[in-house]
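Summary for the steering committee. One of the milestones for this cycle was to obtain a three-dimensional model of the protein with 8-azaxanthine bound, which we needed before selecting residues for the alanine scan. The sequence and ligand used are listed below.
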Amino acid sequence: ARLSAARYGKDNVRVYKVHKDEKTGQQSVTEMTVCCLLEGQIETSYTEADNSVVVATDSIKNTIYIKAKEHPVNPPELYASILGQHFLDKYAHITAAHIDVTVHRWTRMVIDGQPHPHSFLRDGQETRNVEATVTRDGIAIKSGIVGLQVLKSTGSAFHGFVRDEFTTLKETWDRILSTDVDAGWTWKKFANLAAVQEGVERFDAAWEAARNITLKTFAEDESASVQNTMYKMCEQILDAVPEADKTNYSLPNKHYFEVDLSWHKGLQNTGKDAEVFAPQSGPNGLIKCEVSRS
Ligand SMILES: O=c1[nH]c(=O)c2nn[nH]c2[nH]1
């Protein structure tokens, strides 16, 4: 037997950082969960119980907090790159750092029409995600949005699909569409940390654009299918983010089934009379795509 792949580190490292603006008294907060896994000449720790090559996962966890203190945690793409680069700079035998950052929402409260200086709310389980792979050959970054739960009560159709001896699904020109958005965009590889820092405002702008494109297209598209609607989102994101090589979506189709109540005093609740539905926990459709520049 031989070790064909190995990486190790600390997962589920929860980090909170507050920024206090002395002038305005306004405070801002960031909360994220970090996973940091290292690759390199670490085989002997697996094959020969040689711990001399192991940067302890506890030390990795400590480093996550230290770098969050010493450096900005926003945008997460920058923090992930700084954190990953540290391990290559510090440990010659480490050849790659895989950093995943999941940023949770703390949206500033608006109280009596005024943004509150230090109070926030968790308006959804949606997260902003970053996957960075830092090597001596450059920094590969994929950004994303995960868990953005959306629903439209009409404006979605699905018909014209294969009908054969396996088909029971009725065609529809008016259905509920609900999904949990998992969207990603992959940046052209950055040569080094300086290249990430140069034009760093691109990352927030891309996240903003991707989120707005997703919501607007979801809302306004007379959807012929999940497939076609998500493709329209991808095209627009590539147009809006010139430094992105490709974009990808993974959308569950979370079904809401009609409930036939006609057995009860002839109550009409199907087709155009459908108002009460049974939301389904599963099974769900799952539609994926990756769209690249032509
Ligand atoms: O949008 C949809 N795409 C599909 O592929 C599918 N299959 N069943 N319902 C569906 N809805």
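Key point for the committee: Residues 158, 169, 225-227, 253, 285, 287 surround 8-azaxanthine (CB under 6 Å).
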